[in-house]
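Figure 6 in text form: structure in, sequence out.
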């Protein structure tokens, strides 16, 4: 079998999530570019909180 014939469909869940992330990134970028603030978007988007790089141990 040819490995090129085995491909993942573009409508997979992962592709949908990636597409949604790009759309959200573009919308947030445009909002900030037009003078908006991140606090205006907190109800609309779930922002990830950065993890601490310090390890306790």
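Output sequence:
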């Amino acid at each position: 079998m040819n490995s090129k014939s085995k491909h993942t469909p573009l409508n997979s869940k992962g592709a949908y999530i990636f597409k949604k992330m790009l759309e959200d990134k573009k919308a947030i970028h445009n909002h900030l570019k037009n003078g908006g603030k991140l606090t205006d978007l907190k109800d609309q988007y779930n922002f990830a909180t950065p993890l601490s790089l310090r390890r306790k141990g």
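Caption detail: Helices lie at 13-33.
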